[in-house]
Amino acid sequence: MLIELALISGVGYFFQKQQHKAEQIQSMPDKPPATSQDDQLPARPFNTGQFLRDINKAMAADGRQQLLVDIDPKVLETIEKERLRANQRLKLALSAMGLALLGSVYPVFSVFGVAGVLYLSRRMFVRVWRDFKLKHYISSNLVGLVMTLGMLATGHLLLAAFAGVMGSFFAKIIDRVEGSTQQQLINTFSQYPEKVWVLKDNVEIQTDFQNVRINDIVVVNAGEIIPVDGTIQSGVANIDQHILTGESHPAEKSAGDKVFASTLLLSGRIYIRVETSGETTAAARIGNVLNYTQSYKDTLVTRGRRISDRFVPVTLGISAVTLPLLGPNSATAVLWSGLGSTMGMLGPVSVLIYSQILARQGILIKDGRVLESLKQVNTIVFDKTGTLTLEQPTVATIYNIGGFSADTVLSHAAAAEYRQPHPIAKAILAKAEELQLELPERDEASYEVGYGIKVIVEGKVVRVGSARFLQREGVEWPASILPIQQQAEANSHSLIYVGIDRQLAGILEMQPSIRPEAEGIIRYLKQRGFKLVIISGDHQEPTRRMAETLGIEHYFAETLPENKAALVRQLRDEGDFVCFIGDGINDAIALKSAQTSISLKGASTAATDTAQIIFMDGTLNHLEQLFRFMDEFEDTMSKNLTTSLAPGIISIGGIYFFNFGIPAAMELLYLGCFAGLGNSLLPLVKYQEEAPAQEKQEEEELVAEKC
Q: CA 583, CA 444: separation in Å to the nearest integer?
């Protein structure tokens, strides 16, 4: 019994502070991400107190909870409710244990102890029935139930109650790993304002979004999310539609053009006649498809449980054979040998440990089961726009016209756009800085929202903006630029026109900027042997050129959101294990359809709600680090399997040859638990979190005194 008491004491210490963890979640200090195992923080002296705190944080999923709250503060309420329910179940288990202890002294309490154990086992009955009815197989839940009933039948009430306590501990761990019970259905309206402006009798009035009706005129200003699908009645604007359509550059829209809910109005002011709103918008239809698309993770169980379940028939078979040969005590002891059974606990513990370590690096593992699936990934599919590209474009080509030099065109455009906040202005200024151009002084400026900007520079009128803007301003329009326009349209590039006085001085061709980290990440993934694919809603030519630039052989262009998911399913049907990386509403269905999914912080709500892994720095830099940690995780799991099998084999041998009973079998099982827990906790030693500032100062003062 010493092993059992030691385990209760040890695990109890690990969890004793858990009740206070979710009450106040603070922001995690930023740490620079490591890109390889050799780049980890320098080794520090081992700090026992900090190590125990690290264990406590890992078991409470503290790091993951902090990052979840960082993405959506509303999740804190859900975390608190889950914590209270788990603690209530644990208190019931401890009460049953107390009654069992009293029963060993005062037999009358044994009746209440048995009732308490059976009450604790009710969830096990439900799980056994669910496994049999829905999955048509016998799981480790059945073994646990038979063991509990067997111990009650053979008079081992205290051991049965102890098993209930340990089961409650482990249930809390597994619930945190799976995390699916905390997931909400995708709410595609989370980005919409509660109030919108509607034009009534030539007066703009504010009303609830829910009150908007078809044919109402909704007014949307720069920086706002468009809340409805409809047609522009008046006004001009630049709209970022990539989150929905995958287009790589903003679309200029004016009267008569269609606009869509969930897209962002970058500049301008438009009046929209409502055609669809609420659940009938394009974004909502994607959301509805998403809600009814079965996620791959819905069918997942933790790998530890799969291994444990795999040995169930073996354990039950040996126990059945033992019953007539050696009696019920020995048969129950065989069940306690638990071949592979501790993997049901060690696997989730390892997942929580690595989830905590990854959270400190800025990688949020929302569903721990995905960490166990990463090893199977052989195909990585990237969305193009917003995932492989940056928000800010690049000036790809400067076309000088009418005798003006390219430097003159760029410097005057940069002077006009100086201090403008939008991405195109920043791209023009960045190009001028790269070429070390000196910008001429501007005298005055007028910015026509949605069209362009007009500036007086050194006595000349400089106009920068769309073709429509310059033509309306009376700038001469040579026919020679038609091939430039056609080529840009084919490449899905946007053109910014620069006029000086009444002449067209030049054209700036803007192309999407590939993320600076993308080439290195792609190179690393190819070295590991992954099949790489780009799926994009953008046009064929820009998708082809990006794939060629990055050295990616497989790509699909002009793909609708529902077709992205179909392509993912096609890859799965061909035998690929797919990891999809995306950031938009148009990626959400594909994210849900893939076996593993990754998104970036700052992406659409639909993407971050759906993805299983979030890179909190908003870049792809963590991708290499994720797979390096996955290698270490796999090594840990391999050693855990050894510690899970060896004690069971010894136990069965002892039952047949040395007359081992239930207590001995339990002690061997928990000895294996200790060994496995030690192995699972080792990564926390290797990647020990830095101690709090106050404790660190005290340690430094102590060292100084010794010196």
A: 40
Burial class (CB in 10 A: 0-12, 13-18, 19+), 705: exposed
Query: Number of C-alpha atoms within 13 angstroms, CB side, residue 164?
Result: 33
Of 69, 251, 192, 300, nearest to 585 by C-alpha is 192
3-class secondary structure, 503: strand
Give CA–CA dist 606/598, Å, rounded: 12
What CA–CA distance (Å, rounded) separates 151 from 145? 10
Looking at domain 373-386+517-616, which of 3.40.50.2000, 3.10.420.10, 3.40.50.1000, 3.40.50.300 is its CATH number? 3.40.50.1000
> What superfamily in CATH does domain 394-511 come from?
Calcium-transporting ATPase, cytoplasmic domain N (3.40.1110.10)
Q: pLDDT higher for 18 or 267? A: 267
Q: What is the pLDDT of residues 448-464, one digit of tens each?
A: 555 678 888 888 889 99
Give me the pLDDT at residue 677, please: 84
Domain covering 195-226+228-276 in this structure, CATH number = 2.70.150.10
Neighbours of 604 (CB within 10 A): 25
Would the pLDDT of 12 be above 70?
Answer: no
- List the structure tokens of 677: 């827990």
Mean pLDDT of 435-453: 73
Mind listing the pLDDT tens digit for each residue in 96-137?
778 888 877 788 888 887 887 887 777 777 777 776 765 566
pTM over 0.90: no
Domain ranges of the chain: 2-182+300-362+624-706, 195-226+228-276, 373-386+517-616, 394-511
DSSP tag of 133: I
Largest CA-CA distance found in the chain, in angstroms, rounded: 106
**Cβ-based neighbours of 210, under 8 Å, separated by 6 or more:** 278
The radius of gyration computed from the CA coordinates of the chain, to the nearest angstrom, equals 31
Contacts of 391 (CB under 8 A, 6+ apart): 423
Do residues 229 and 261 lie in contact, with contact meaning Cβ atoms separated by under 8 Å?
yes
Residue 384: closest CA among 508, 495, 614, 550: 550
Instruction: Please state whether 108 falls in left (phi above 0), alpha (psi between -120 and 50) or beta.
Output: alpha
DSSP 479: G
- Rounded-to-integer distance, Cα 637 and Cα 635, Å: 5
Q: Do residues 652 and 318 touch, judged by C-beta distance below 8 A?
A: yes
> Which has the closest alpha carbon to 100: 152, 55, 157?
157
> Which long-range contacts (C-beta less than 8 Å, at least 24 apart) are formed by 572-579?
576/378, 576/379, 576/531, 577/373, 577/376, 577/377, 577/378, 577/379, 578/377, 578/379, 578/380, 578/381, 579/374, 579/377, 579/379, 579/380, 579/381
